[in-house]
Amino acid sequence: MVALGTSTTLTAQTGYFVPSEEARHQRTFMQWPVNRRVHPDPLFLEMAQQTIADVANAIADFEPVTMLAHPDDHASARRKLSSGVELWDIPTEDLWCRDAGPIFLVDGNGGLAVSHIQFNGWGEKQVNARDSKIAAEVANRLGLELIPTGLRGEAGAVEQDGHGLLLAHESSWVNDNRNPGLTRGEIETRLLRAYGADRMIWTDGVWGEDITDYHIDSLARFTGPNRVLINLPDDPDMSDPFHVAALDTHDALEAAGLQIEVIPEPTIRRVNSIDFVASYANYYVCNGAVIAAQFGDAETDAIAEDALRRHYPGREIITLNVDPLGEMGGGIHCATQQMPAI
Predict the structure, then answer these.
(1) Which terms in the Gene Ontology molecular function aspect does this entry carry (predicted)?
(2) CATH code at 190?
(3) Looking at the whole model, is its pTM more than 0.85?
């Protein structure tokens, strides 16, 4: 199912909007993972921390990075982080800054604010006593207005092009674990206001099969106005709800008249778990570079890198082994949140 709607937006009321990710940044925010209820295996937690450090250090070669962590965790984090990564005293549980971190708005005249979509642990599926406060605490530290949206959810569940268009799976929003009692139309109106956008494409997604209820940023990403990269299997399994939902999203984007490029999923992987997320689409665009995953499949890794080079000309393409993030159901984009330049 696909729907394309319009609504009164935050842009019309205040001039604020969320810029595209490829617009220039002041810095990148990230979160240091520490919670042992979330990560009970100390060896895996160490791997997750090193992976987050690798991503942060790669970004720090291109722009400032701020790592959020409890003061008690600064010493251990500092040992893994480069000098280009600053530590702030904001306590964290897990690493998913795209979802728990602040969504920054600009007004084009030097104004900056935070659009507050309340994180609730993907529908209270995970402990979030600290992470649910992060967006507000960052806004407070920066002295920025926190603009309420009336929504619970995550920025990883909505893709935006910075030019008025949003894309989302219903399963991550029209869901009683996030927004009970709200219709899709009501949620759409609030999302459009939250991002300063005026159009939205919905597709069904997948309810209840993963912790995120199928975040869009592991499937499809805007690379410019009306232009999309999407990660699809070469040989879809029509008994797999994620494959069916991915193909439905592709068809919806095509029906909306967008320019689409398909990147195949890797067929050779270092991790063969059925729950492993091997998404080339879950990359991060920073100043001068794209930080992306490679999965050990020489052919598809090269196809993805070439596609990113075409879509983001003039930027370096930096590829990393971030398999621990895939084992946790996410990727590089999920772990980062940009603060735009003003």
Answers:
(1) agmatine deiminase activity; protein-arginine deiminase activity
(2) 3.75.10.10
(3) yes
